């Protein structure tokens, strides 16, 4: 049984804007539905992915070093970093709140950093190792990306929980702004990566700007 024809052989291109399959045999350079430029592959997927990922790692340093919230309990107030906030709530017996902060602000970003770094590194080296598993890993990164705003909203959520319990008050601090940048940059890194690079058996010009008319 012969293998099915590839989209490139059929001169088809998937619009990155709306997902419509476009026929390139008519010299079409823009999607006729949404007007987005057509590219057979995402432009510079590895270079852009690394750039956004490194930028996110840089901003993750002040996001953890600077205070993200000010907690006032029993008349005493203090500024807390992410790790400091987790420890404070844990020691105060609010282990559920501490778990929310740890998962949303430390666990999820750490998973995204490691996963995106692995995907970019193996794709850059054109590795044939665990292709199916890496494809599943990319889908997992996309899945948790839908919940990335939880990292930014966690302070507001925790503030509401704390005030509801009457434990004290919480106010945001500058570190949460850097954390918001980390969330946006990791999402851009995931969006820049082209999962088809995982299955390429030969050097592909997907690392260059491949337009519909090329």
From TrEMBL:
Pfam families: PqiA (PF04403). The chain crosses the membrane at residues 50-69, 97-122, 143-164, 176-193. The keyword Metal-binding does not apply. Keywords: Cell inner membrane, Cell membrane, Membrane, Transmembrane, Transmembrane helix. Its main location: membrane. The keyword Membrane applies. InterPro entries: PqiA-like (IPR007498), PqiA-PqiB_transport (IPR051800). It is found in: Cell inner membrane. This is Paraquat-inducible protein A.
